[in-house]
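Thread: Modeling a multi-component assembly for a lab meeting

Hi all, long-time lurker, first post. My supervisor asked me to bring a structural picture of a complex we are working on to next week's group meeting, and I have zero experience with this. I have the sequence lines for every component (769 residues in total). Could someone generate the structure of the whole assembly? Inputs are pasted exactly as I received them:
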Amino acid sequence: MNMTKKLPSKSNGGGGLSLDPLRDWWAGAAGWQRWGVYVLLIIGALLLPSNAIGSFMAPSGADWAAMLSDQIAIYVLLAIGLNVVVGMAGLLDLGYVAFYAVGGYTIAIFAVKYDWSFWETLVLAIVFAAASGVILGAPTLRLRGDYLAIVTLGFGEIVKRTANNSDYVNGPRGVQGIPHPPTLSEFEIFGVQPFSYGILDSRPYYYMLVFFIVLAIIFVKRLERSRVGRAWTSIREDEDAAELMGVPTFRFKLAAFAIGAAIGGSGGVVFAAKQTSILPTNFEFMVSALVLAAVVLGGSGSIPGAMLGAFVVAWLPERFRFLDDYRMLLFGAALVAMMIFRPEGLWPSRQRKAELAEGGGGMGHMGAEVGEQQTGAAAEVTK
Amino acid sequence: MMRVAGAVAMSAVLALGAGACGGDGGGSGDGDSITIGFMGDLTGENSGLVIPPKQGAELAIEQYNATNPEVKINFKTYDSQGKPEQATTLALGAVKQDKIVGLIGPAFSGESQSVGPILEEAKIPSVSPSATSITLAEKGWEWWHRVVADDAVQSAGVATFLSSSLGAKKVFTVHDNQDYGKGLADAIGSAVKAKGATVQTDAVDDNATDYSSTVNKIVDFKPDAVYFGGYYAVAGRLFKQLAEAGYEGKMMSGDGSLASELITGTGEENAQGALLSCGCLIDTDGKTNANAKKFADDYKAKFKSEVAIYSTEGYDAATAFIKAVQAGNTTAEEINKFLETVSFDGVGKPIKFDQNGELAAQDIFIYEVQGKAIKLLGNANEAKVS
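Re: Modeling a multi-component assembly
Sure thing. I ran the full set together rather than chain by chain. Output:
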């Protein structure tokens, strides 16, 4: 089923850079055309670490392939996960880094202390991260909006502090000597060994992350189009109405939390295996904030938007590294400019954009754009 | 519409400008020039500890290039902000794109843990001016060196100083629960204990501002000396609150607090007589050797500031590479081979590495806050409090 078809194609928000003609074509495109675009996108993603692109994207000394794998692809994966929680189900989560940390520490503990292999710890980490999502969600998801944000923020700090104070994981020294994933084959194509996980070549990790990202997109997209996705939408738009209409909101919210956490946990595993060492300071609140910024900047609720946002958030500060002290200032200015020119995000979800235009939609107190409608509604209530 | 177009045009101009600036990175290996990198926290929160060694290294290489040598050295800096995950990205770029033949740094121990394996596999020698973690030398890295004594040596030196020179019977150690601070404070606690002193310990939160619970414990314990392991920002706050609570024993801290910001943080009056230990040498008067005086003068002439923490070590690390190049070694492999046997008198200490890459001469120096300056008292084994 394609919901976007039924929505009016005229938009009234945002600036002049509209994606609508492209979207109309996409909505009407035949199956083979869509698959063609998907394949082209994946091929494009696989060619991304080439030097020709890198010389423009990463001119100031950093290794482009490493930048792609260590920062950009990880943030893209995290943003896809957080998008489920924030964008689709409308739950404001400020402690997302906790799940990323759970993934990282799972591989650190089980690979270093118990000699588990990368793939075993990956499965375990996903389970643990999802479980921690349930553990956090079960008592807290009855809260909404600002309250939920504060509780999740606290959870992020708790995980980091626990790691910092626990001798079992070496406290502030972190865990060193996490093994790389085992090399799958020495197979070589265009001078790259895409399945050989060593220390000098970051490209195999990037390909692995692309694989995870594609999997996550398929998974999340299937969910979005299913009964679960529609339940999330209804919760995001009006939780009380959804509950009254018979949607078991608590269970769906918990599911959103667990799925988002599982995706975040897998990112943590790859990060730890690539870096071979992790410290509690890898999991600062800043990561949560940046991933949330990525989701909102890209267009909350839209998977391509979240990916684009994550790319921008991870890449811009690195690209303008030569500006030294001013680059964060410029980065902030870019974010502010974004808010002015495209408040609904770089690549908004069409459905959400329509709901925002209609007013009253989305994420409770989070979006500034919902203000007018809410005061209207409030006025009606007080009458 | 126009506004959007303007924003797009502006970002395009910015991006193009960036491309133009990025072009001058300079690869090495074209026969008459090679590239040596410097990696550390140059714009982050602890950059006060890393800019001085960067300037020291820069001065050494500039002086070398001014002699019109056959092979010139390009100096390229990598700003890791002290974050391991950024350091690895930069290290890979330095190895692959800039083709560095040697690296001065990484400055901190945390980033050294992550960057070490990369340099090891890429076969690039490194000389750190300031990474002091004990575990670094235990990894068996063949391409890694440092020109500063590790935390074990520092704690032994401090223990000697505290018990012999100060005659401290009761010592209170405080740390900030971070990698560096906890390691140092714990090591000092056990070293002092081994010398027969009683020790109590406590941790403070580096983000907090009120340390009254720790201060109360210290005042109750009435130690002869308090040793703080951590960085200057926290040390300043702790010492200030200690002084205000009426504590009268000695206050001491390590290399992470050896910055003039400590005096401003503590307050000039409260900070008087505070002691600092460091494996680094800051010797503006040439107390220890004649080279130090000349270096301090050159440094001041170029950067308009006094030599500070680790600038001597930055200079000596760069000099080790320069000596290698002067002896006709231009590849990473030759340079590493040369570093195994290098032996010269640096502006700080004699530079000679053992097989783990540790400095053979392991001196710890004691400093004291006097007026607005931090003055060298001397080697930890013989320093006397004024």
